Each structure stands twice: as C-alpha cells, then as structure tokens.
Amino acid sequence: MNPTPNQPPYTAQQERLAAYAKALSHPARVFILQYLEQCNGCFVGSLASVLPMANSSLSQHLTALKEVGLIEGEAMPPRIRYKVHSQNWAEARSLFGSLFANEVVL
Predict the structure, then answer these.
(1) Phi/psi at 77 (nearest 5 deg)?
(2) Dihedral of alpha carbons 26, 74, 37, 89, sign
(3) What residue spans define the domains of the chain?
(4) What is this structure's pTM?
(5) CB within 8 Å of 27: residues ≥ 6 apart
(6) Is residue 82 a contact partner of residue 72, using CB atoms and an 8 Å limit?
(7) Which of 95, 97, 101 has its CA nearest to residue 17?
(8) Would you give the DSSP letter of residue 14?
(9) Cα-Cα-Cα-Cα dihedral of 67, 38, 55, 89, to 10°?
(10) Closest C-alpha among 84, 32, 92, 76 to residue 57
(11) What is the pLDDT of residue 8?
C-alpha cells in the first residue's frame, strides 16, 4: 500500500484493532467484558456488587466499552441490561489473534 501524503498507511482493520486495544487498556474493562460474557449479560447493580469502584467510574468503563462496540445495552426501563456484542467481540478476538500470530497485512 502506498499512502498519500495526507493519508496514513493504516488499514481499517489496524484502526479497529487499535480502538479495541484502547478500550481494553484498563483491567476493570477486561473484567467487565469477561464477567458479561460469563453471565450472559447483567444489570449495573450486579457489576457494582463485584467491582469495588464508584458507580460513576463503572459507568465510564461501560461507556468506553459501549462506544467501541464491544458491549451493548438493552433498555429495560428503568434499567439497562448490558451484554457482550457477539459480532464485534468475535471480530476483536480475530484481529488480536492475527496480530499475535504475526499475520500483519500491510
């Protein structure tokens, strides 16, 4: 690939991988993702009972995971049930797997 002077040489896959990596750059977010996958989704109250942090911090971590698409929220007024976004999580696992297997596509 020959980048133009104003265009970085990154592929769309590299940009997605970087976004997933950034979202997973805090151990609380890794825990949340694994917890949601294990219990097949839950409400914030369940997460708050197992994570020793303020609700505002928990909310920020959920937002970071939701913005990149690793989790999704299902509105069940007045609460939201969070769960792993299976398609995006499969993509993230595939991208990380390729990275660690040295299958870099330039």
Answers:
(1) -45, 135
(2) negative
(3) 12-100
(4) 0.85
(5) none
(6) yes
(7) 95
(8) H
(9) -10
(10) 32
(11) 82
pLDDT digits (tens, 9 = 90+) for 35-79: 999 999 999 999 999 999 999 999 999 999 999 999 999 998 999
- Closest to 99 (Cα-Cα) out of 32, 11, 33, 36: 11
Tell me the average pLDDT across 10-38: 95
* Residue 81 vs residue 104, higher pLDDT: 81
CATH match for 12-100 among 2.60.40.10, 1.25.40.10, 1.10.10.10, 1.20.1440.230: 1.10.10.10
Which residues make beta-bridge pairs with 76?
Answer: 79
The DSSP element (H or E) to which 73 belongs, if any, is strand 71-76
Q: What is the pLDDT of residue 6?
A: 80
* Helices 86-100/12-23 angle, 10° precision: 100
| Mean pLDDT in residue range 21-35 | 97
* Tokens linked to 67: 């913005």
Residue 45 tokens read as 């109250």
